[in-house]
Amino acid sequence: MGFQPYRSPSTGRPVRAVLFDTFGTVVDWRTGVARDVAAFATEHGQDLDADAFADQWRALYQPALDAIRSGQRSFTKLDTLHRENLDEALRHYGINPDRLPGESLEELNKSWHRLPPWPDSVQGLARIRRRYIVGPLSNGNTPLLLDVAKNAGLPWDVIVGSDMTRTYKPLPQAYLRTAEFLDLHPGEVMLAAAHNSDLLAARESGLATAFVGRPTEYGPGQVADLAPEGDWDLAASRITELADQLGA
Amino acid sequence: MGFQPYRSPSTGRPVRAVLFDTFGTVVDWRTGVARDVAAFATEHGQDLDADAFADQWRALYQPALDAIRSGQRSFTKLDTLHRENLDEALRHYGINPDRLPGESLEELNKSWHRLPPWPDSVQGLARIRRRYIVGPLSNGNTPLLLDVAKNAGLPWDVIVGSDMTRTYKPLPQAYLRTAEFLDLHPGEVMLAAAHNSDLLAARESGLATAFVGRPTEYGPGQVADLAPEGDWDLAASRITELADQLGA
Which residues in chain B are closer than 8 Å to A163, comparing Cβ atoms? Predict the structure, then answer.
């Protein structure tokens, strides 16, 4: 009969699509952003700790999404939020963004499009792809996710960006509308993520769940998400290990 | 400096994404559907000319889309239209679909998900993908296009189905919304298609255009779309030849 897809004990259904949180789970945003920040700082004669700046920039991410999740602000794509947050991060470091060339800031904002994959990502995704649909389930907008994939060589089958679902994780519609776009029951979709809160929300929306540990996503001093904190269907420390667990 | 993308003389812009009409241009729907119709006819003891039945089924496609394009009917996905048209095609041959098992009809409807690629498609797309974004620009809905891609091995970067644009070619919004989802100017998007009418509509929406000849799409007696009928930017008889022309 051939391949038997993994059946999630929590959903009771065979998994058809394995969708990945992307920033942190598949690509290493901190290394990628810090690299471009360092080059930017050198070019413009700014004295910046590139790692700390990357952390600061990222720290503004959830608050920016919160304004949209709460309905205070209408849906705005992540590229735009990143650009606004860049200005705010610069001001945090006492740098006036209005004194820097707009083109250079746009270019630096594109650092989120050029993130390196974790060492196991490309091979792991390629293996899982042979047996399942693979794609991102990310707060990124489609062109951002597409650029990330092209630059990192991620072999997605399909990209349903947040600009298509018009909402942001961890709101339930982010998971449910993605499943709907794929004509799948939520229980046939597995979210693979390095963040326990994301997995919790996915489970509450009826998805299958897999934790992929990324203990240095936030650098060597990371304190959160070092291990699975829920009874997720699967837990792995690499996407290639997840491929093993999925029989792919 | 590296690769210089093809610049369309008609749009004056470099092409960033090469998007393909899919049914007919990339995959051979007639052969694939007829194959499954023949198996279905044998299984259910029906006497059917499988090629003629495939043609009849496909002949109902444009009228079904017309009802939606004209606003008579609200947006309905292609999988549903195919299923309705299957019933109508059976009745055309004097077969009452209500006397056949629903599951078998659903399965036969899935023949549109399992179409063989033309011999040059996979290699041609893989080559173009190294230098450009590649994807479908089709009236198919996303899960249908995804299945077609998985089954035929089409290496798309991204799939923006008609369920995302909520409209059908050749209405301008089908082309324009697709470009918008990719954050591209319409002139940075090239439509590659075997159908002159599709290319005409794409050009009128400001896209770059490439004709890919498929002179046997409708079988050996095909009379239309045997050659480019407009001053399209490019014309090729295979997708691999288009890859050459695009420098990919």
Answer: 181
